[in-house]
Amino acid sequence: MRQKVYHIMLALAMTAISATAQTTTSEVLLETTAGNIRIALYDETPQHRDNFLKLVKMNVYDSLLFHRVIKDFMIQSGDINSKHAQPGQLLGTGDFDYTQEPEFRLPQLFHRRGVVAMAREGDDVNPEMRSSACQFYIVWGRVLDDKKLNQIQERLDSTTQGRVKLTPEMMATYKTVGGTPHLDGQYTVFGEVTEGMDIVDCIQQQPTDKYARPLEDIRILKAIVTKDYRRP
User: Fold this and answer.
1) Side-by-side strand order, sheet with 35-42
2) How remote is the C-alpha of 230 from its chain's centroid?
3) For residues 40 and 195, what is the distance between their CA atoms, to the nearest angstrom?
4) Average of pLDDT values for 56-76?
């Protein structure tokens, strides 16, 4: 992912998935120039949850840009070089000097629309699929039909040596909610947007340059921990 790399049925489907698939006891609010996005962090991915909470409390995300935005795919932030980036400056490589072990939790946690996942360097330099320290993305994706999902499964069979299989439940979600199934089992999903998907939609539709950076800066003004699992 790094460059060093709605309708009543849809709302009900997302509510049902969120309520049954995972537990969330921590929450972060992103106040952005486009509006607020609230993110719940999964207890099933404790390393990524704790790392994200730590960085938010350190004010790492304050003033960072959404530096990579691809329509019908995702919006990405967390490049630490983006805080003072000049117009047109190529971004995507700013990170800290550590990575995180992957916490894949298939089929429970997958790339449906609205989830939050950690970016990483490509397989050629990162065969262990370790996550970035700080760069993350929010999934938008597309609603897919059976033909497209079967094609994606064939691609997954090749890229993951048959390790990743889309279950009937996952496929049903991709056909109603949408998402990016070709990333499943290769990037760690660690949270979900609980408020502000309209803001995510607005951001993912913004015009960008050839490097997928929005032509008009969209910035995280402040990230705030609003709920911490370690507090009663």
Assistant:
1) 66-70, 74-77, 136-139, 115-118, 189-195, 35-42, 24-32, 220-227
2) 23
3) 9
4) 98
Q: Which of 112, 68, 120 is nearest to 95 (CA)?
A: 120
Nearest CA-CA partner of 199 in 172, 219, 175: 219
State the sign of the Cα–Cα–Cα–Cα dihedral 15, 138, 99, 124: positive
CA–CA distance, 48 with 50 (Å, rounded to integer): 6
Residue 71 identity: K
Cα–Cα distances (Å) from 99 to 18, 60, 62, 125, 134, in that order, read 28, 16, 21, 13, 9
pLDDT of residue 71 exceeding 70, the answer is yes
Q: What's the whole-number mean pLDDT along residues 197-202?
A: 98
Q: Which is nearest to 170 in space by CA: 191, 187, 160, 185?
A: 185
Query: How much of the chain exceeds pLDDT 70, in percent?
Result: 90
78-135: pLDDT as tens digits:
999 999 999 999 999 999 999 999 999 999 999 999 999 999 999 999 999 999 999 9
Q: Is the dihedral of CA 174, 177, 182, 184 positive or negative?
A: negative
Q: What's the rounded mean pLDDT across residues 195-224?
A: 98
